[in-house]
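Raw record, unedited: YigZ family protein
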Amino acid sequence: MEHNDTYQTIAFASEEILMKEKGSKFFGYAFPIESEDEVKPIIENLKKQHPHAVHFCYAYQLGVAPKVSYRANDDGEPNNTAGAPIYGQIQSFGLTNVIVVVVRIFGGVKLGVGGLISAYKTTAQMTLEVCEVIEKTIDEQFLVSFDYKNMNKVMRVIKEKKLEIVAQEMEIDEDSGLPIGKIIIKTRKKNAEMVFDIFDLMFEIDIKIM
């Protein structure tokens, strides 16, 4: 079974985009993110940059199907006039692990529901158009544990299969007093089962999914 183990996101934070509509200013920003924990600090930072702005509307998406989480926030604008059109642009660009924030400074003229939807959508679109889109792989991590004497066997597989070492450490086994190696490795999702099986079949070597 072929897994789709790649996704598209942005390489780095966008430059600031400014769109003006009937006196209101809409500032657009996009940031690559890996978790929901990054959202609040991004918004707080933008609030410092724009102390006079009232609305900090945003949408983000994380993960890939079947595990996708997303949120669209209107931040005080009428329902579905800000967050939803921003999220629509994230979808239209086919991106994930990204947040797009549009900061509005009110210019004294109400734009109406249609005007707001158009302004937030256009700002989000302009913001994503200046971003560099990159393809990333979905990876799985394993913890491989082994007696020190089997270190070469483990390293040979890591080298042959071009696996990435995320972390490694040696510790002393309390029972035997002998050194034990622990290595966290990373591989593309589509190769994960094969890599797991290789280590799983090796004598005196333990592998666990992280």
